[in-house]
User: Which sequence fits this backbone?
């Protein structure tokens, strides 16, 4: 069987979701996938970025991370998204990227992608689930196969127990308050496993 091809697509202003993307890549590689870590384009005005030293430093530190393209979406059997919470929703940067996928969607090329999502927020009840669910709404329109972690591993409990997708709270300095590395790795392992079942299954069953 060919390896599962997995894209980890993230947006991050201050590094949290980049770190989660790196852990997801680690888990997916461990599970045998070919992996790309890709960022979505930054859209914020330069003045806003310059006014926040952590944002400016993160952008500089990740300037060599490749930018996600429609070709990457076509390439991937599976996609793990990681995106901060903004007012209980996705940041415009991630939404704008999703909004560029209309042509692929129209051509049916996003159907049966195996997907999963993660997020971060500053407050425990600041909208973690809402952000993940809003991303999953787009995935349902794609005809993607959403793989949530549920409570399929003990690591979920140490990480705050979000069954929709791993999420973490960050303090004012940007430090993660929960240890979510194990949960992210489990989520990536699980996403690759399900993507492998789908990829194998496509060889024996006609595709819908
Ligand atoms: C405009 C804006 C809106 C935000 N909205 C929320 C929110 O609704 N709930 C919350 O808990 N945190 C909110 N935050 C905090 C971010 O979620 C937090 O900074 C982010 O998760 C850090 O991720 P990053 O380091 O990957 O950028 C907001 C931050 C900004 C700048």
Assistant:
């Amino acid at each position: 069987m060919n390896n599962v091809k997995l894209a980890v697509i993230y947006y991050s202003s201050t590094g949290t979701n980049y770190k989660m993307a790196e852990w997801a890549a680690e888990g997916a590689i461990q599970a045998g996938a070919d992996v790309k870590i890709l960022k979505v384009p930054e859209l914020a005005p330069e003045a806003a970025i310059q006014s926040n030293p952590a944002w400016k430093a993160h952008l500089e530190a990740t300037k060599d991370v490749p930018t996600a393209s429609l070709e990457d979406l076509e390439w991937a059997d599976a996609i793990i998204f990681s995106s901060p919470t903004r007012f209980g929703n996705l940041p415009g940067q991630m939404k704008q990227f999703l909004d560029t996928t209309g042509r692929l969607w129209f051509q049916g090329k996003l159907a049966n992608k195996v997907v999963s999502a993660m997020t971060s927020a500053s407050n425990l009840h600041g909208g973690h689930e809402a952000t993940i669910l809003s991303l999953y709404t787009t995935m349902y329109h794609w005809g993607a196969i959403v793989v949530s972690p549920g409570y399929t591993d003990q690591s979920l409990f140490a990480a705050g127990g979000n069954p929709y997708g791993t999420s973490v709270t960050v303090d004012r300095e940007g430090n993660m308050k929960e240890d979510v590395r194990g949960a992210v790795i489990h989520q990536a392992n699980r996403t690759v496993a399900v993507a492998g079942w789908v990829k194998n299954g496509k060889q024996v069953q006609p595709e819908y």
Summary: Strands lie at 5-10, 34-39, 78-84, 114-121, 145-146, 167-169. The chain has nine helices and six strands. Residues 5-200 form a domain with the Rossmann fold fold (CATH 3.40.50.360). Residues 14 and 55 are 5 Å apart (CA to CA).
